[in-house]
Amino acid sequence: MSVENIVAQGGEHLAVHGLEWTTKELFTYPNEFIYWSIQIVMYPYMTGLVAGAFVLSSLYHVFGQQDLKNMARFSLVFSLALLPVAMMPLQFHLQQPLRGINVMFTPHFTSAIAAFGIVFSTYAVIVLSEIWFVYRQFFVDQVNTLKGKEGAKDRIMYYLYIVLTLGAFDTSDEAVAKDKKAVKILAAIGIPIACFLHGYAGFIFGSVKANALWMSPLMPVIFIMSAIVSGIALCMLTYIIIMEWKKWSTIIAKGKGDESVKMLAGAELDVITKTSRYLLGFLVAAITLELLDLIFRGYTAMKSWDILRSVMYGKDFINIFLLQYTLGNLVPFIMLLVPGLTIRRVFFALIFVLFGVFMMRWNVVIGGQAFSLSFAGYMHYHLPIIPHSMETFKEGLFGAMTVAATPFVLFYFINKVTPSLEYK
Amino acid sequence: MKNHVLRPLFVVIIGVALLLVVRHFMVPADFGVQEGGNFTYNFHRLSNVEDWKNFKVKYRGREYCQECHEENAASILDSPHEVIQCENCHGPAIDHPDNPETLAIDTSRAQCLRCHTYLPYPTSQRSELPGIDPQDHNPGENCVDCHNPHNPDLENM
Amino acid sequence: MSCSRRDLLKNTFKATLASTLPLSAFKMLSPAQVKASVGDANVRWVFLVDTQKCVGCGLCVKACKNENEVPYDPPITRTWVERYVLMKNGQSHIESPFGGRDGYTDTSIHENEIPADQIAKGFFVSKLCNQCKKPACVQVCPVGATYQTLDGVVLVDRKWCIGCGYCIMACPYGMRFFHPVHKVAEKCTFCYHRIIKGMKTACVQNCPFEARLIGNLKDPNDPVTKIIMNQRVSVLKDEYGTKPQVYYIGLDTNVR
Prior knowledge:
The structure holds three protein chains of three kinds. By secondary structure, chain A is mainly α. In chain A, 71% of the residues lie in helices and 2% in strands. Chain A has a domain at 39-207 and 390-418. Chain A has 14 helices and two strands; from the N terminus they run αβαααααααααααβαα. In chain A, strands 1-2 form a two-stranded antiparallel ribbon. Chain B is mainly alpha-helical. Among the domains of chain B are: 57-106; 108-147, no CATH class. Chain B is built from six helices and two strands, in the order αββααααα. The termini of chain B are far apart. At the A-C interface, α1 and α4 of A face α5 and β7 of C.
């Protein structure tokens, strides 16, 4: 390497990761930037949705909560659609995305992230197996129905279902009873693993001793609670949208006064009312823990409290107290509690809940980097909106939107193979 | 068909086996915990230490310069600038005179001001160095026009 | 039929296990090889910064960037120099523009003119990786891409790092960053390529005032060891329990 090369290096346009969207105030160390940006906000948010959706379906399969029966099958399939999306933000975030698989090759288990590969795969396997047992009989039925059909699409579907049966065509009562038992066992194993999956996402943050905001043993529990809240909320919301769409298509097909329209509307409200009770319960738990954490920090007032307070009560006040606690928690809490629940009211309450959980993730991830390790300066995050490079796309608004939209696209396709809304 | 319940398990086992096979080919053979170390702090690709040891040295130090430029080294060693390494101003030698053939000398005013802007700081050695106020002391001029870096004291020139 | 298939599966599995697990992936080198490849366990590299002597010229930062091929103009750096000016009224001014790469050639800080007669203390503190005995950055690496050598230096494997940034988050000193060219975690190596050849680090060699020193803590005759053992020294942020190994003379409570 010659001197010219060394000098030339400085002249090239070199993207310093984080420089693009970070502004600094007062004294921060030179290398400090918002390294964990929007995708790391998306990551716990999406894993939270996965875990929450699964827990919701397990409430029926394991604890026999009959009121959740209609919701259970849907949320199980939806959690499968969410599953790959929990990994996507991490892939988007990695500086070396092609090396992501190294986590599986040489896991260094003293790191919380190393557990990700193992826990995530275990969890994926459980969800997939559970779906297989739930739908095995359906697969076999489909194989029998499609057997003689000639159309190209039917042939493809026929072979797809053959593969999906894994060669198990037995649909005797005995065999089906075994399926049911397997579902129950898997759902039972799945609950702690779903909680673990998300709890350790909280652990990833809670165990960073260098970060004054993140370091708290409560972090994993807070993450689990808010995960379940967001998972249930998203399942309910999607369910409402799908049911409304069905209702409207029935109205168009059969007219407004038709009996089936009333039945659909009645069933929908029933499911939603029952599910919202669970939502409220977990919401209370989540808020209680978060407030406990906040009060404890203020009361003990360790070295970092001065800067934390200035961030929480000053710079991030709107994000934390208005958007997260008031709009995201308090408002939907009241909306769901007031008697005489209507679908429209629930719909808006759910949007607020989902927004509130997102803001909680934002305030943890971005808020945790809003102050310098020196406790003498601040950093501000500016979300890249219009992408002008791969990095500003991946770690910008459009990258986050891509991640958020993917589960719905996936659900559309998965639902073609394992219909979760009609099949009884 | 008794045990159709275990079929997903077989699929999983095949998956794990596949992963292990791929892993076998993808993970460098010398990956592991280094002897005398522990998993927490010493788990890595062992040959990476060699990679770092073979990193190119660029600043060779005064002894290297002295081999050819004895007079210049002697002159600065005889001056108050004896503490300053040749390469701080002349640039890293790397493999000079082969590569690069010539070094670009930093004779800028900014280079001198690194030490010789007077900063009135009690408890720091900075305030004891001979210093100027750059706004006052021939602003815009290059220091080397009057001062010889190898013999900076004007009275001795 | 299904039985034989199961047997086949079982055998395949066993065979695969047998062929992969014989720890070829965790192959051990012989002790001699290890000693040669990993450095000497009779050495523990430590650093000593004398803040009384530092004049804030920034030649250490300049040398470090050139020596270690850290792009010169971007604001990231493996080592830096901070300026502290503490006023008689208790106010403090702290800064480190571009890590102090170009030295401190102006009396004003953040565009505020600082009146000389109101300065109580003014000094410079240089920072570099503390090469902790219990490095948090290494503990959190998910793939084993960063590690501690037996002589106490924490290195990053540029071919194995996935660039997740967890180590950057875990370091209480803010030492780490992403290398703009290699796109992996980057940090001070104590100029490992130099110290194992018996040279000083680039920053130590180019410091005119001996404000930076490197030594071997396991050698009782090493001048740095003697100072650490016999004088009053301190370290930065020991409350994180990482056991940092960069020692300082003349620290102040205001040093961050």
